[in-house]
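FAQ: What does the model actually see?

It sees only this:
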Amino acid sequence: MLLNSRTRRLGAAAALCVLVSLPGCAAPEPRASQRLTRGLVPGEVTEIARGLAMPWGLTFLPDGSALVSERSSARVLRIPQGGDPEPIGTVPRVEASAEGGLLGLAASPSFARDRTVYAYVSSSPANRVVALRLAPDLRSLRQDRVVLDGIETADRHHGGRLRFGPDGNLWIGTGDAFSPENAADDRSLNGKILRIRPDGSVPPDNPSGTAVYSSGHRNVQGIAFGPDGTAYASELGHRAWDELNVLRPGRDYGWPESEGRDGGHGERPIAVIHPDDASPSGIAVAGGAVWMGALGGQRLWRLPVDGPRADGDPVAYFVERYGRIRTVEPAPDGSLWITTSNTDGATWGGTPARPGDDRILRVALVHPAP
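And it is asked to produce this:
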């Protein structure tokens, strides 16, 4: 599954042939079609919302509406079914930076009862996870409490993704705060996957006896769970390899001694992609694959999986069509919602904002044509 930067020069017709190990790349579609018959592929794309400012987190509520966070403004907007985004509140004490601000969102598994949504906030002197309480009409919110504090802050490498697991716990991806040694430091919450109960307490089966579930991560911006409970995380690499990892309790994933499959330290990823083609952020599991949004790579990756194993070759869609893709979220109707990140000022591997950016797009998942 080793991919290189020449895929950035391929046109849309060749986007299905990105593996350097494949001979005869000039006619990729038959091979790709055969691989995809076991799962779903992107179909129709429709625009849900436009004109957003640096959307980052996205979560669905039981009524089918969605919440989206804006990184720099610290606003939370609600998108009712079939409606336009409506600002419902601003999270306090958010400090925007090159990569920081209001980041991930995750609705409580008990939202119908507690009306609580969790948010990852970059601030000073530290980053934190907070609980937000929505009003009964879902048109306003307030910060209810700080759930976890003490995550080191910096200009970059905040991590920021939140996801509730099938175990009912809140999983949190953090970055190394631009200090690689943090990832290997058991005393630091940075460069880790954290796992806590909704009230902020530590689950009794956490391997460290602390909030730390796994270590040795550079910058985790994607967490998702398969139907069998397998936990996946996307990780931004340095200059060699971005990673898709399967998370296991107490394991060290190698950073800073190893990157991708280079180096002999830590758990090996199940897939690696060159940063020119990825710089991954959000992920989702659907149709037998992990779907990975790519920032610098400006595409949506489909990585077939079978539980904790890779089950085929990655395939790229929408290459440079929508720009930088930040978040990928499974919607209640079986589609994927993706957010673009073209207004965040990132020029490396990015494109200037276009009229209408930033957007939320709905991607239907369909069976491939025979």
